[in-house]
Amino acid sequence: MQNTKYFEANRRATWLELFFDLIYVVTIGDVTHILSHTHEGHLDPLQFWKFVLIFIPLWWIWASHTMYANRFDADDRKHRLATLFIMFLLIIISGLIDQRFVTSFETIVVCYVGAKYIIAMMYFVSKYRHKESVELTTVVGWVTVTGATISLASILFPAPQQYVVFYLGILFDLVAFIFFLPRRLQVISVHTEHLIERVGLLTIIILGESVFSLSTGLANISWTVERLLTAATGFMMISSIWWVYFNSFHLLTEQKLTTGHSVLYSHLFVFIGLSTLASLIRHAILDDMTVSDFRVLSVIGAVCFFIGKQYGYFMERPELRPQLVVNTLVVFVLTGFALLLPRTDYILLGLTAMVICYAFLSLRYLNVPRERHAHPRNSAITGDQP
């Protein structure tokens, strides 16, 4: 494995990975756009479920590629071409998400499965390059192929059965990686710094999507003092989320992870939460959503973001658990008070105050002595368990 970036000193995300993240966020922006449509001030519940159900396979493509690249990225021509082709498939999916989703579902399935087959092929190729990882790459490759094939079988069924079969393939993948593959994955422990950087970079790009949502909310409308104040509140929320998320990020970087699942998988909820909150900012500026629907989205956005953010710290830094639980409960109580406010712009202000409050609460554990559990990467050479 010495010819991979895994053992590079001061490893950083590659330019290709940054390009991949950019394409992915463009696709997520199209998914989030589903939440922008209201009908007489209401958001159809089916719109939200459509948002989540499209979000999951796109996230799983990104997570699967990130897991591979973290351990086996050689940044060679084969890796670059395979990754670029996955990006092209994401662009195709992006173009089919909104109005043509139902009629083009089979095409979306084929693109998703194609991306997963490419990732499986990348694992199989790594098996021949790195003899010490033959067992790991073989098992992960075949698990990926099996899950993708189950999803591909969905095109043989009519709706709604085809949706069930499609997500069964994704569920198979997730269950296998979470419950049956951790011991094998620990043979080559995750590159902690690289994984934390990847999820952090994607988070900050998605935050940029929130700023875009804010600016589009101000476009083509008459600017009033009230709307400008709401936009200022939205920017304060985005800035506060950035502060809360990254101010304690070093606590994860200092901890040597094994599989990295607690950080990688919990970010599904972080990304859903951020995308939902971005949509809220736009609706608050336009004032085009009823207060009741705005409250529901506020709960979903706040809960998903904080649960997703806290889970990695909760699992990887046991010494912080009491403070994390208390701080999270305080946040949820403050969110409840914010929901009692009578207008959407007031609720947005209350949510912003809640995030700022959490930023102050988190100061208590930023300097807590860490319990460092190192997992030397040279175990990947010998195949020993860390």
Structure explained in plain terms:
The chain has 386 residues and is an all-alpha fold. The chain has two domains: 5-188, no CATH class; 192-364, no CATH class. Helix content is 72%, strand content 0%. The chain is built from 16 helices and no strands. It is globular and about 65 Å long.
Helix-strand blueprint:
Layout: H1 15-32, H2 45-72, H3 77-96, H4 105-129, H5 134-152, H6 161-180, H7 182-185, H8 192-218, H9 225-247, H10 250-253, H11 261-264, H12 267-286, H13 291-316, H14 321-339, H15 344-361, H16 379-382
What descriptors fit this protein?
386 residues; mainly alpha; 2 domains; 0% strand; globular
What is this entry, summarized?
Helix content is 72%, strand content 0%. The protein contains 16 helices and no strands. It has helices at residues 15-32, 45-72, 77-96, 105-129, 134-152, 161-180, 182-185, 192-218, 225-247, 250-253, 261-264, 267-286, 291-316, 321-339, 344-361, 379-382.
